[in-house]
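Re: weekly structure request thread

Next one in the queue (437 aa):
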Amino acid sequence: MTLAVRAVLLIVFYLFLVLTPLLLASLGAGPRRGFVLELAVALGFVGLAVMGLQFALVARFRTVAAPFGQDAVMLFHRQMGYVALALILAHPVLLFLSGFDPARLLNPVTAPWPTRFGLLALVGLIILVVISVWRQPLRISYEVWQFAHGVLAVLVVSAALVHIFLTGYYVDQPWKQLFWLAYSLSLIGLLVWVRIVKPIQLNRRHWRLRRVIPERGQTTTLEIFPEGHPGLVFEPGQFAWLTIGNSPFAFTRHPFSFSSSAERTEDIQVSIKALGDFTKTVPDLPPGQRVYVDGPFGVFSPDRWEGPGFVLIGGGIGVTPLMSMLRTFADREDVRPVYLFLGNPSWEEITFREEIEALQERMNLTVVHVLSRPHEAWSGERGRIDIELLGRYLPPQYRRFRYFVCGPPGLMDAMQTGLPAIGVAEDRIHTERFEFM
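Done, posted below.
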C-alpha cells in the first residue's frame, strides 16, 4: 500500500471517528426538540469527538505520522484545536438561541450539575487554547506549558464526558452507555500508552551523553551513544523527541533533528540552538547523563524521494537536518549535485561553517551563504534568500531537483510560494516546520 493510499484511508477513518458519536446519539433518540437545539447537541458531540482524537494525534504513532510527517500531524493537531473550540463554543450559544436561560446556565451556583461540568469543559478549553496561542507573550515556559496543556486536555474531555452522562438524553440506552464507556476507556488507554508504556520502553533502550560540543551561532551539539542496545537507524533529516537528565516518565520532551550522518551507527548527534529556557542550559549538561530517545520521526529526508540532485535551503538552526543530509551524502560518496543556500545574520554565526566548507572537497556541493548583517569586506550575497537569488546559482535542470527547506516560517512560506512560480512542482518541495507548541 502506497503512502498516498494510506493517507487517504487515515483521513477517511478520522472523519468516521469524528462523526460516529453523533450518528450513534441520533439512533433511537427521543422526540426531536427543534432544529436549533438539535444542531447545538450535534456540534457538541462533534466537538467532543475532535477533542478526544487530539490525544491520538499527539501519541506519536508512526503508522499515523508516516504518510504525512510528524510536523504535519502536529500542525493538524493545532488547527483542530481551533475547530474544537469553535464547535464547543457554538454549543451553548445555540442552546441559548433555542430558549435556554443564559442567566441560569452560566451561573455555576444555580446551574444544574450537567451544566456545571459542561461549563468546566468549556472554560478549560478556552484556557488551553489561550496558553497555547499566546504562550510566549504570556512568558510561560515550554515545560510549564506542556504540563498544563496535558492536564487541561484531560480535564476538558473528562468534564465533557461527565456532562454527556449526566444529561442522559442521548445516552439513555444500555448500548449507548456501553459505547461511551468504551470511548472513555480508549482515551484512558491512550494516556496509559503515552505516559506509562512508552516511557518503560524508552527506559529499556536509554542512551548516555558522551560529549557536549560548542558550535558557532549559539548552538551546541550533543553526542550520545546507546547503552546496552544497538541504537537506532534513522534517515538523514529526521528528528526525535529527547528527554535529557530526567526520568523517562517526565512530562516534558523536546523535539530535535539529528545532525549526524545516518551512516554512523555507533552514536548519534543532535545540535541545539539556545532559543528557550531548556535549550539555554544545554551547554552546561554534564557528560554521562541518561538520555531517552523517542524516534525517529519525519518524512523530511532525501532517502524518501528520488532525484537527480538536491537543493537544500536553510536559515539559522534550520541547518541541523540539512547537515545530517550533507554528512550522509559525503559518507555514501553520493556524486549527485547538491546546492546549499544558508541564511545567517553574520559570518561568525554560521553553524558548522568550517565543516560545510570542507565538505565541498568530498562531494559535489555548491554552497551559497547569505548574510543579513555582513561585515564590510563581505563580497557574497546579502539580505535574505529569495527566488531571484536562487536563480543566479541553480543549474538549467533545476526543475527536476528535490528541494528541502528548513528555517524560519517566513523563509519556508517564501519558498513554498516562489519555487512553484519558477516551475518547480509542489511535490518536489519538502519542508520541516517545528511548530509543535
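The chain is about 45% helix and 15% strand. The longest helix spans residues 174-204.
Next request, please.
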